[in-house]
Amino acid sequence: MTALALEELADLRATVAGALTAAWDTPQSAGHPDAGDARLGAAWDVAVRQGWTELGGEGALDALVAVTGELGRLACPLPLADVYVATRLLGGDLAAAVADGRIRPVVAAAEAARDGVVGFVEAAAAATHLLLVPAGDGEATLAPIAGVRPTPGTPVPAWSEVSWSADGAVTVPVTGAAAEEARAVLRLALAARAYGAAGRSAQLALEHANLRHQFGRPIGSFQAVSHRCVDGAIDVAAFTALAGEAVRLGLAGDRAWLLAAELAVAHAAATAPRVQFGAHHTLAAVGYFEEHEAPWLFRRVHADVARLRELPPAGGEPGDVLVEGGAGLPPLDLGERAEAARAEVRAFIAERVPGGPTGEDPVLLDLLAAAGYLAPGLPREYGGRGADPAEQVAIGEELTYAGLARQARVAAGMLGPSIAAHGTPEQKSRFLPLISRGRMPFYLGYSEPETGSDLAHLRTTARRDGEDWVVTGQKMWGTGAHTAEWIWLAARTDPEARAHAGITVFCFPVGLPGWSIQQHRSLGGEISCTSFFDDVRVPDSARIGEPGGGWRVLTEALAHERIHIASGTARLLRLFDDLLGVLRADPAAAGMRGSAARATLTGLAVRLQAARALVASSTRAALQAGSDPAAAAMAKIIGSELEEDLGEAVLQLLGPAAALADGPNAGAPQTFEESLRLSIMMVVSGGTNDIQRNLVARALGLPR
């Protein structure tokens, strides 16, 4: 099946909303007395006319997920996923009857039947048949519905208990693979519908936060409100990325799609109610009464998430699959060129660096530099590969996973793009070859005692004096300054200019007269330094870009932030794979199938895959429409906060041995205990996560 383009999916969603306006108008339809029959029946008629009931025959998984998500936004429980699955399992004339609406099935797990009755059935009053699907090899039974007893509660329209008639029932043989796929589709669709509803509520809350004024200000300007909205947006974006990856693999016929789908489902089960509650907290009393959409969306979210328990995955929860199977997290796809580069790097490492030099070993740096891997984004004439963003991400992920040349690649990612874009010809000729060979050890002169993430208000000054600049001030947390040869410094050169306008960037050697440092050892074990600049005289040739134009130079590196974040998620992937290796060697260490320990592992897997998927989707988008700073910030928030929780979880799963330097993954690029100690820095560095949430809030349109 060929995937639909993003524009086609957007058009399909718009069609769903428009076509169902008359048959199903939220919130009136959701709470209407006959919503379970006449209105759902009318919506089913629309689906037949629009061809949505034919999606199963076409294998259009992407269209199904898109349509189902839109149904969630409308709080409409039209069972299109049931129709999709029935079409694929039944085939022939029966499938045709389902597609044209003569047979209108609802689906349930065969093991859920009790004494000829199935409970918690959605849209039963509008259906004609019940389809019972086995958990593995066996038979699916399609039987006419004989009785429907509504069971009022949170879901509106109400769920029902359904009985069926043996007269007219037919059975169809089903393979284990087909049964597993059917359940995965149904579960992914439930998750998509729940998140459609939760996402609509989050959108309503965001709009409300901009319009509602309290204490003389829009409530979205209060950080407690804006960060709640941001957290909801992050969860929505993560589900979108996870579901997108599952659909991509499903359309490609890759069996990894089953695990990818369950990761998306697990994310929805854990977070869709959280998003819904957060939206209600922002909407407050306005969203509590049934004239508003939110109560009906609330019912939809909780109904769909609850039904996931009635249709368990055939292959087990992700934590079970990962421990008991040989595979890791599903692969991502950054495009043909990027994946070719990834394969090339993997082969290079396997052939040239098997158990050989690691870290920043000069022999290793020379090997990687000769292949153009240290600075792949730089032009070839300066030792790079001229690689596009996706190729850079793929190369960086593989080198990070292997633990190779991290410091050398930081210079390439942070300094290389800025010098290539804003440096003079002499600066490019001097610095870029050093960077591409991994021979430019440097440290950042950004943060100051009073300005950590707030670079716009830095106080270190650079005063012009003839052909030189005289730098005065203090910088903090310069990691590696004690071994660096260069400093990349941001200083204020125009004290009269406001905020960003008066900043200039310089790159000059350490050790100049008036420069001194004080070393500090961090919890993570690395050395960071306070730098003092006492009238340090720097030549104008050290200036990068125009005087006062430093903000453009600084943000050039930020445009490559996804590459840095992708490397971070690759490092976490290596840690996670190391954890899987330990657990597989001693399955008892992870507890029994379905245990709390396995659930912990599922949660870690979901969040790691979400961070990876956000980076991948942001990278693919960058090739078409430019960078997406909100997606990069979201991935940083998810990944860095995951690192803290991963460190804690490893201690819980593996015990005190994981707190030892020679613990269970001794010899890996990073041990479990190193990662735990470093985790705090991952949250606070590069702009604390509070600042990252503020950036996302601005991208969402919330007021300052």
TrEMBL record:
Residues 182-302, 548-700 form the Acyl-CoA dehydrogenase/oxidase C-terminal domain. Its cofactor is FAD. Residues 445-536 form the Acyl-CoA oxidase/dehydrogenase middle domain. It holds the Pfam family Acyl-CoA_dh_N. One of its GO terms (molecular function) is flavin adenine dinucleotide binding. GO terms for cellular component: plasma membrane. This is Acyl-CoA dehydrogenase. The keyword Nucleus does not apply. Keywords: FAD, Flavoprotein, Oxidoreductase. It comes from Geodermatophilus ruber.
